[in-house]
Amino acid sequence: MALMPVSDALAAVLAGAEPLAEEMIALDQAFHRVLARDVAARRTQPPEAMSAMDGYAVRAADAAKVDAQLTVIGEVAAGRPFAGTVGAGDAVRIFTGGVVPAGADAVVIQEDTIADGKRITIKEAAVTGRHIRPAGIDFREGEVLLHKGTRLTERDLALAAGMNHPQLAVRRRPKVAILATGDELVMPGSTPGHGQIVYSNGYALHALARSEGADTIDLGVAADTLAATTSGIRRARESGADILITTGGASVGDHDLVQQALTNEGISMAFWKIAMRPGKPMMNGQLGPMRVIGLPGNPVSSYVCGFLFLVPLIRAMSGRSVIHHRRERAVLGRDVSANDQREDYLRARLETRDDGTLVALPVNHQDSSLLANLAAAQALLVRAPFAPKAEAGTPCEVLRLPA
Ligand SMILES: Nc1nc2c(c(=O)[nH]1)N[C@H]1C(S)=C(S)[C@@H](COP(=O)(O)OP(=O)(O)OC[C@H]3O[C@@H](n4cnc5c(N)ncnc54)[C@H](O)[C@@H]3O)O[C@H]1N2
Ligand code: MOO
Q1: What is the reported pTM?
Q2: CA 251 to ligand 1: nearest atom
Q3: Closest alpha carbon to 115 in 192, 203, 55
Q4: 212 and 143 inside one domain
Q5: 37, CA 20 to 30 Å: which among 152, 288, 349, 376?
Q6: What is the sign of the dihedral through the CA atoms of 298, 301, 304 and 308?
Q7: Which stretches are annotated as coiled coil (predicted)?
Q8: Is 297 in the pocket of ligand 1 (CB under 6 A)?
């Protein structure tokens, strides 16, 4: 049977994935949240011309010559403007952030003057506009500086504050429930019995989902029975999860019960099995309002599928304007053999040559159980289905893994 191409599978996972509801949030809670609306400045910044330095506000024409003398008629500090006007021969003491008084068109820094009581002598000629920040040089009222779909950086928060927004409209975080399956799994730190495996998949998946802005719900490990798997799926629905991720039990073995349990619960299955390595037995469907991604149990398969499918889905539901991973161009660091019908995602290390060329070095062992290789990898090297064998130096494409 022909397996579904990865691009079709991704399109199916994302089909109908709309941004979740909008909510207002205080600015100090808004880091990494996704804007639901464009944000326009509520004020002009700076609202008036302001001094960039400590010194004297003058008329440039009066202070254009070294040794010119001026009379200090007042003072302006940040937040305390001067009410008068700078006339011929006048200077006003000014500090950084002070409003440039009427009549003045330059600031002479104090290091370039000699002060004697109310008299100052200019030691460096003034230049019109120098050391003055004109009104609106940063932004003007009504200007849209932050756009819908942006995931807010710490710098965006400072900008939003400067634009005078105490809160912002953002999208609700997707809720991702994660259910592991497998009789053999024991928790890290325990003493595994014969044939037992230490649970690892959930640690990577929770962290990956959270780093993309999702809230996660840990549904623990279900035993390999229909009853236990079904109970896990029901708990996901009761928790109000937007997305259920299962790991394990996705293949064709007698103990692989996830598909059966989902079918019994009434899932509308979009696909099961894709032309991808690792990750072939992945499944996707919809159970009421809850989207379901059934990941294979092999640790590398579950992570790679989470990275390739869950991450764009979380981004789409979070309302982000950019949801897809960016493929980067690189060259092969070593020869690779011809590929079969499955699109290959090879764990690779990255090096940058002196000329800036990115080199992708696939690790030697690509078995989907090898966690050490996964942790050491910095990228996934993408090999198209049926790609012919290729020598070191051949151009290739990589997806950088989160650092
Ligand atoms: N006859 C066939 N057998 C298999 C096929 C196939 O097409 N025909 N596909 C293989 C591929 S590819 C994959 S991938 C695996 C996926 O199988 P499952 O999703 O059913 O995974 P499990 O059997 O439950 O587990 C596989 C492996 O991973 C370990 N595991 C599971 N969960 C965790 C966890 N949370 N933390 C750490 N390790 C976990 C589990 O102990 C097994 O060792 O099927 C192939 N078989
Ligand atoms: O598709 Mo499986 O993930 O190769 O081991």
Answers
A1: 0.95
A2: 20
A3: 55
A4: no
A5: 288
A6: negative
A7: none
A8: yes
Q: pLDDT per residue over 183-205, tens digit each? A: 999 999 999 999 999 999 999 99
Q: How confident is the model at residue 254 (pLDDT cuts 50, 70, 90)?
A: confident
Kindly state whether residues 191 and 309 are assigned to the same domain. Answer: yes
Query: What's the structural domain count of the chain?
Result: 4
pLDDT given at position 2:
76
71 within 8 A of 86, measured Cβ to Cβ? no
Residue ID of nearest Cα to ligand 1 atom 43: 298
Ligand 1 proximity of 217 Cβ (cutoff 6 Å): no
8 Å CB contact between 110 and 54 = yes
Determine the angle formed by the axes of helices 258-265 and 226-238, rounding to 10 degrees.
50
Q: Say yes or no: 210 and 304 in one domain.
A: yes
Ligand 2 center to residue 338 CA distance, Å? 18
**27 and 160 part of one domain:** yes
Which atom, in ligand 1's list, is nearest to the CA of 247? 32
* CATH number of 377's domain: 2.40.340.10
Residue pLDDT, tens place only, 52-97: 999 999 999 999 999 999 999 999 988 889 999 999 999 999 999 9
- Give residue 256's pLDDT: 86
Going from the Cα of 301 to the center of ligand 1, the distance in angstroms, rounded, reads 8
Ligand 2 neighbourhood includes 301 CB (under 6 angstroms): yes
1 in a domain, yes or no?
no
Domain containing 313 equals: 6-20+172-317
Other beta carbons within 10 Å of 327: 13
Among 284, 317, 350, where does a domain finish?
317
Does a structural domain hold residue 121? yes
Distance 277 CA to ligand 2 centre (A): 5
pLDDT at 1 over 90: no
Q: Which of 177, 179, 176, 181 is nearest to 248 (CA)?
A: 181
Count CB atoms within 10 A of the CB of residue 341: 12
